[in-house]
Design goal:
The structure holds two protein chains of two kinds.
Chain A (H helix, E strand, L loop, with lengths): L4 E4 L3 H10 L3 E4 L5 H7 L6 E4 L9 E3 L5 E4 L4 H6 L1 H6 L1 H8 L4 H6 L2 H6 L5 H4 L41 H7 L3 E6 L2 E6 L22 E7 L6 E8 L7 E12 L2 E10 L6 E2 L1 H7 L6 H11 L11 H19 L2
Parallel strand pairs in A: 1-3, 2-3
Antiparallel strand pairs in A: 4-5, 5-8, 6-7, 6-8, 9-10, 10-11, 11-12
Helix pairs in contact in A: 5-9, 10-11, 11-12
Chain B lengths: L8 H35 L9 H16 L2 H18 L1 E7 L2 E7 L5 H8 L18 E4 L2 E4 L12 E3 L12 H8 L9 H13 L6 H7 L10 H16 L2
Parallel strand pairs in B: 1-5
Antiparallel strand pairs in B: 1-2, 3-4, 3-5
Helix pairs in contact in B: 5-8, 6-8
Classes of the chains: A alpha+beta, B alpha+beta.
């Protein structure tokens, strides 16, 4: 690992100032991804700004109506084990526990989870071309080993996927992100936080220079049925080939509202808005779910080694809807 | 045509300034070096004086390297390392197995390397060094983490427990006893990490069924395949540990 300057900060302002001053600096919270990237030589910041001193951003606050405010420094395990989250937003707890290991969930923070980089093997291998790591060098995954790669929203420059499970659930639950930066504070929709690769795959998200995630909020909802289905190469501690997050409001046997997103298929959590519209007013049965799954896979593009993801994705959406509808 | 430029007054001035700066920097380096050495010698806890096999290997390798390298080169390299060390080290206070340590470390040193290389606590193992195998699992403020993914400097003021700090004197921790009883290891390399992880798995309340144990212990890989015995060990000790 190339050595670096290290600075501890205890307020958002000093953090943002320090980051703005040095373009080659990085925030560190849990460090589970950044330290790994630095060991691999993928990332070599001149300065590390340790933000673990923002004690007030480690809390999870549940509002009286069920809305949730999550400090960006709350750990993944803290969130997954929070009684308020388990009862009001079980989807989020399910998704978090489907990701990483108990040790990593104890270290990794909510903000850090959102900021984690793709696990594309070519991005990690500094001897290979990768437009995300080195813009303009090419994409080795297109025509290479792309079994884990995207089928939606890809570009000629990049077909990497965002690896997070937590983010798929947050996108499904209409979460918002609070951001502080040199120009002040702003709030954006979670679904607008991550980007598609387009011509600038080096940018994973829409944070501007010097900006820092401070809080993630989830609005109160009326969903009654949830499920997070993750398909992977081993039964635990592996990244998703395909994952599906489902939140449904069912009364009688009719679906009143539906939110769905997929993971492991795009450069960002992939919301299935057309499917959501289709499901509203339909009976919660197998025929509806199969039709919805067919619709979910429309517009998918595959790259040779990941052709199986269309069939798998379709089956996963059907199964996730089925599982969600059967839960009380 | 003349290739040689006549030295003018400004050039001489700059040359002088350059040489003065160079000398001043040199004197500064030497002063800082000695102040730092005296300071560190007075603050560092006394290291174990016994010569271990590891120390012998380190020394003999260094001597072998020196004998085939030019002495000037070796000296230069040594000086460079010392100068680098002076400017890149950070003070760090943390408690390991109940002992308070006041240290100075480079920011890039991981908690794992600090424990093994500076504190000579070799029980915590380096497996993959990328957070994929769990061999480096330790407790930080009572929570299990991968010490290979944590920078040492991020643990200022924290309480660390390693496998060496689990037993109570000569009495093994119940989890250690259970691993022995159920033969929960073969080569033993993953075992310290498995045991540290298992203790927290129980404390977190995730050791109720074999399936739950398998899920919550998935961050610890055992290439010998001792998993069934590890699950048996945790199942047996979980009810006892839960009540402590």
């Amino acid at each position: 690992m190339i050595n670096f300057d290290y600075q501890r900060v205890s307020t958002v302002k000093t953090a943002v100032d320090a980051k703005t001053k040095n373009a080659s600096s990085q925030f560190i919270a849990g460090g589970t991804n950044l330290v790994d990237l630095m060991k691999k030589g993928v990332s070599a910041p001149e300065k590390i700004i340790d933000i673990n001193g923002f004690l007030s951003y480690k809390d999870i606050i549940i509002g009286p109506k069920g809305s949730v405010g999550i400090g960006a420094l709350a750990t993944n395990s803290q969130l997954a084990e929070s009684p308020g989250i388990k009862s009001k937003n079980p989807l989020l707890a399910l998704a978090i526990n489907a990701g990483a290991s108990a040790q990593i969930r104890n270290m990794a923070t909510v903000g850090g989870n959102m900021m984690q980089r793709t696990r594309c093997s070519y991005f990690y291998d500094i001897t290979m071309p990768c437009n995300k790591r080195e813009p303009g060098s090419g994409c080795a995954a297109i025509g290479g080993q792309n079994r884990m790669h995207a089928i939606f929203g890809t570009s000629e420059k990049c077909i990497a996927v965002h690896p997070s499970d937590m983010c798929v659930a947050l996108a499904t639950l209409d979460a918002s992100v609070y951001i502080s930066g040199p120009k002040g504070d702003r709030k954006i929709l979670f679904t607008d936080f991550h980007r598609l690769p387009g011509d600038t795959p080096e940018l994973d998200n829409n944070l501007q220079k010097g900006e820092l995630i401070t809080v993630v909020s989830i609005p109160a909802n009326t969903f009654t049925h949830f499920h997070y289905l993750k398909i992977r190469d081993r039964s635990s501690y592996a990244f998703a080939l395909v994952s599906v997050a489902v939140a449904l409001e069912i009364s009688g046997n009719t679906i009143n509202s539906a939110n769905l997103a997929m993971g492991g298929v795009a450069h960002k959590p992939w919301r299935l808005t057309a499917v959501e519209k289709f499901l509203v007013g339909k009976p919660a049965n197998k025929e509806t779910f199969e039709a919805a799954a067919g619709m979910a896979m429309e517009g998918a593009t595959t790259f040779g080694k990941n052709n199986f993801k269309i069939k798998m994705g379709k089956a996963a959406v059907t199964e996730a809807l089925q599982q969600a509808s059967q839960k009380i | 045509m003349r290739f040689c430029v006549q030295p003018n007054a400004a050039a001489i001035k700059y040359l002088l300034l350059y040489r003065i700066t160079l000398s001043a920097t040199f004197i500064f380096f030497i002063t800082v070096k000695w102040v730092n050495l005296i300071y560190r010698n007075s603050r560092m806890p006394q290291q174990n004086q016994n010569n271990s096999r590891r120390d012998f290997l380190k020394k003999s390798t260094a001597i072998a390297a020196l004998s085939i390298t030019s002495p000037v080169l070796a000296k230069a390299a040594e000086n460079d390392e010392k100068i680098a060390a002076l400017f890149e080290q950070m003070p760090l206070k943390l408690e390991v197995n109940g002992v308070l340590h006041t240290l100075s470390v480079e920011p890039r040193v991981t908690l794992l390397d600090l424990l093994r290389e500076q504190l000579h606590l070799m029980g915590t193992k380096k497996g993959c060094d990328h957070g994929q195998c769990g061999a480096c699992t330790v407790h930080v403020d009572g929570k299990r983490i991968n010490s290979c993914l944590s920078l040492a400097v991020m643990n200022e003021g924290k309480k660390i427990t390693t496998i060496e700090g689990l037993a109570n004197g000569d009495n093994l921790h119940p989890m250690q006893e259970a691993f022995i009883k159920h033969d929960g290891f073969q080569c033993g390399y993953c075992t310290p990490g498995q045991i540290m992880s298992a203790v927290c798995c129980v404390k977190e309340g995730h050791a109720n069924t074999p399936d739950e144990i398998r899920e919550y212990m998935s961050g610890n890989i055992c290439r010998c395949g001792a998993y069934p015995n590890i699950v048996d060990a945790i199942m047996e000790v979980a009810p006892i540990l839960k009540n402590t």
